[in-house]
Specification:
alpha/beta; Lyase, Ornithine Decarboxylase, Chain A, domain 1; TIM Barrel; nine-stranded mixed sheet; 21 strands; 30% helix; globular; binds pyridoxal-5'-phosphate
């Protein structure tokens, strides 16, 4: 099985976190997002331990809440001692409801509005990640008006290609995020930030992309950042106390994907950073990392009911589900690959090829092309899609006025709703 929280019981039924997925589907309905809470917690602990041990206590992982954000999830992050990345007032509000300590919250985003800035200042978020000069000046103005001092990190674009999908690549010179080093703009950005009376520049932030497997991406990024840190020290006398390296470690969606030991990677990275800091003669900064996907992706499984099977002789077969691009837009967005499994393994092998489709009014509403499922698949059968914990619930939409599926947390053999199913009445609730 793709992940150790997947198994089949003696009768061939797919179990997730030790619980029968057919029973869960019967209890909560489909489409259904299941989340393995024990796995979420163990992923957090792995990151915290690896960072603590590798950087002698001078490091912290921040959970990138955009990967999956709801109150119960952020409560878990608070309990596990994580920091938190947020990018909107909605995420700040969720953090507050979860009782998340605001001093461990970092406010991200390339398009913060004045209202966003005011809310975040009033809620006393620990840190702003300032994306550029327009935001810098707006933040100075608002902080000054409120008579507060705000800690900030400055988002810098290191000019690194993470060798991943174009749509999730964020570190190259000409992306919309941050301020590039290569053009000289980052240097001016730092100089200007240091001159702002209401802002306390603690350090720098960078994030080069998502689904990173390449061995050297974080090492190369740190090299570029530490060279820049050394330049700032020499030219401006500025000591960078905090270096945030962003998120991005990849996860396995397919059996054929590489396995990666993140703890081992972090240890190697820490040694690399220490050597580089020594070499360019800057003090070791406090290190932040911002994992999202690698905290929650393998803790998620989506269960669908097949609504229809269509065979088009000489062409292809479709298995149409009760979900679709509304609960998972990732194949439509960037061709994301997945492992799809029948919930009940029959005697018959999974040998027929289907395009797993959704119910939305778009021909492109495909969850995954060419998946292997039993040839006798029919209406009413259940199928499961693996590794759906990250960027699924958080990316879900209401296209066709479909309600978003519930999120059910699985822990120590028990299940409980964390987000209830959206009803047709919920969907009409905002209409005047
Ligand atoms: C998306 C994002 C992350 C998280 O990335 P993952 O690939 O989910 O680990 C972290 N930091 C920033 C700035 C991001 O935009």
């Amino acid at each position: 099985m793709l992940s150790s929280n997947l198994s089949r019981d003696a009768s061939g039924v797919l179990c997730f976190a030790g619980q029968r997925t057919d029973d869960l589907a019967a209890q909560y309905g489909t489409p259904l997002y299941l989340m393995d809470e024990d796995r979420i917690r163990s992923n957090c602990r792995m990151y915290r331990k690896a960072l603590r041990e590798s950087f002698e206590g001078q490091a912290l992982p921040l959970y990138a809440s955009k990967a999956s954000c709801f109150t119960q999830m952020l409560r878990i992050m608070a309990e596990e001692g994580m920091g938190l990345d947020v990018v909107s007032r909605g995420e700040i509000c969720t953090a507050k409801r979860a009782g998340f300590p605001m001093e461990r919250v970092c406010f991200h985003g390339d398009g913060k509005t004045t209202e966003d800035i005011r809310t975040a200042l009033q809620e006393h978020v620990g840190c702003f990640i300032v994306d550029g000069i327009d935001e810098l000046l707006a933040l100075q103005k608002e902080a000054d008006a409120l008579g507060v001092h705000q800690k900030v990190l400055l988002r810098i674009t290191p000019g690194i290609d993470p060798h991943t999908y174009e749509a999730v690549s964020t570190g190259k010179v000409d992306v919309k995020f941050g301020v590039p080093i290569e053009t000289g703009q980052a240097f001016e950005f730092v100089r200007l930030a240091l001159a702002q009376s209401a802002l306390d520049v603690a350090g720098l932030h960078c994030h080069v992309g998502s689904m990173v497997f390449d061995e050297m991406v974080f090492e190369d990024t740190s090299d570029v950042m530490l060279d820049f840190i050394a330049l700032l020290q020499k030219e401006l006398g500025f000591i960078t106390q905090v270096l945030d390296l962003g998120g991005g470690y990849g996860v396995r969606y397919l059996e054929s994907d590489k396995t990666m030991d993140i703890a081992v990677r972090i240890r190697a990275l820490s040694e690399h950073i220490r050597r580089k800091a020594e070499c360019v003669q800057v003090p070791m900064p406090y290190i932040l990392m911002e994992p999202g996907r690698s905290i929650v992706a393998d803790a998620g499984l989506t269960v669908y009911t097949v609504s229809a099977v269509k065979h088009i002789p000489g062409f292809k077969s479709y298995a149409i589900t009760d979900g679709g691009m509304t609960d998972n837009p990732r194949y439509c967005l960037y061709g994301a690959k997945y492992t799809v499994l029948p919930v009940v393994a029959s005697d018959e092998e999974a040998t027929a090829v289907f395009d797993l489709a959704g119910r939305c009014c778009e021909s492109g509403d495909i969850l995954q092309p060419a998946v292997l499922l039993p040839a006798g698949l029919r209406r009413g059968d259940l199928v499961a899609m693996c590794t759906t914990g990250a960027y699924h619930y958080s990316m879900a939409s209401n296209y066709n006025r479909l309600g978003r599926p519930p999120v059910v947390m699985l822990r120590e053999g028990k299940s409980a709703l964390a987000v209830r199913r959206e009803t047709p009445d919920d969907l009409c609730a905002l209409d005047i």
